[in-house]
Amino acid sequence: MASRTVKRKSVVTDPVEPMVTPPPLSTDTTFLTKPKIAARSRKRDMPEGLWTKCPSCESLIYDKELDDNLKVCPKCGHHLPIGARERIHSLVETCSFEEMDAEMQSLDILKFTGAASYEAKLAAYKKKSSLLKDAVVTGVGVIGTHRVALGVMDFSFLGGSMGSVVGEKLTRLIETGSSRGLPVIIISTSGGARMYEGMFSLMQMAKTCGALALHGKLGLPYISVLTNPTYAGVIASFATVGDLILAEPAAMIGFAGPRVIKDTTQADLPEGFQTSEFLQEHGLIDAIVPRRDMRARLVYYLDFMMAGRRPA
Amino acid sequence: MKHHLDFEKPIAELQRKLEELKQHPENHSLGISWEEEIRLLERKIEDARRHIFSNLTPWQRVQLARHPKRPYTQDYLRLAFTGFEELHGDRMYGDDRAFVGGFAQIGDRKVVVIGTQKGRDTKENILRNFGSAHPEGYRKALRLMRLADKFGLPIVTLIDTAGAYPGVGSEERHIGEAIAVNLREMMLFNVPIIAVVIGEGGSGGALGIGVGDRVLILENAYYSVISPEGCSAILWKNRSAAPDAAAALRITATDLRQLGLVDDIVSEPVGGAHNDPAATAASLKDAVLRHLNEVSAQPVEERLRNRYRKFRSFGHVLEPSAQAA
Ligand SMILES: [Zn+2]
Predict the structure, then answer these.
(1) What class, spelled out in words, does domain B62-311 have in CATH?
(2) A181: CA distance to ligand 1 center in Å?
């Protein structure tokens, strides 16, 4: 099995993420409305790669400071997008992460040609980032005192969309968790199923949920963490069947995009619709956990959820 | 009211002529008897139908799947099943009429049958929400499937929905979660599950009752990750490329069979299911019974293992270093 260890600290000054933090908004996913992640405007007014404007409070933040703060605005606490590897690095013990299936890549099985071909899209995204081969990074690592099977999605690769690779990597991750007796944690961000792979993408929903069904039967925990944005095919599959469902603050989470709902129903959307806070109020989310507290909180939950399995 | 699609027009035109001739035999062409002309016209209609329906584009099949005269779940409940009495409600919130379900018999098999239901007219469409269910629909389906599992009755699902309903209430009551829980639970039911896409297989809303030991699809039904219109709007930036999207997405019964994503195609009469609902129901009944008997013969553990392996196997990836590592 291919494995790779994420290097600690030294990567901070050698950023794994694009310097201007918000990833380019992708429309390559199955929901019709782009979630508002961050304004892309006016970045040209400032020196390239040094500062980022907080999309919420509009403060200019020094990129080094933003990186050190896990891409959370130090002024207002707004959670900006964070890359999968940077997030893993923020959660696991140094050098404990063994990546699985690092080389797995998407295949243009349908020979999909729309306005652009899938193959061209894939090539463009792979060129953009040498650190991502697709929209999820999976592996086994140690969080606090718990060895866990950890999957982290990355919106910057084709809008975090789920095709065969995302589904296969997550399924192998869950199966690894099951066979090694480990809890599974999946941190989601996605626009939904990847339409370039047609029905193969839809079937990843059944595949991942099926693996989680078997995992659950073994009495092993699954914690799902929803981050901004998580929509459509991912929300209608593995992301909402967690024993616990957590969310980052103010994340946009839903099945259909807000514009689709507005167009379909002609109704006004309630205030705060589809935010983490709204969904917690409506009973979906166990807890809203700020990014900097996530590691400790996961350890806290696992201490309880694994207590019954520990040898006395 | 008469419904026909653009490509059905030549057939409809001939049919109109035939009816006219039958009503006014005195207008028939000179030189041949009017009985003979009727026979001629009937043959022409058959030829036109055969010709048109042997060359359908994916987009034309989508239109057939959405044909307003196409048989819906309740038509099959009447024609392919016996003894159906509807059971209502999710025991939590409401009774979503976009779903119907209950006990029924198909051939000699007692089953629980569940399906999405479209309306035949405006009034019924309001009741059925055009066949697009809210979370309550998926939870009602789950309740009925649990009932089936508890009493050892096989589950048959009939899928015909443009998709789960995108509305405020749907989101407030977690439509995504309702579908996801069904995907998880359907993998674990001990009883056999046969899922049949009878019309529109609209994305997650279809898959929400689509995890079966066997997944069948009617010849002119489609099953897609996104509607062709939706895909067109996103990838072509306008909705008019829907026919291209329908082809690119590979959503027809033949495509899906070739890709290994469905287990069998249920054939429709020439002219489509709406041309002869009884014949369509008969072939649906045959196919369901055949597959049901096959999977019923498997021991429970083997059936569950096969069900998992089947969905587990879907997907194609590249693994460049798999051998090297
Ligand atoms: Zn801010």
Answers:
(1) alpha beta
(2) 41
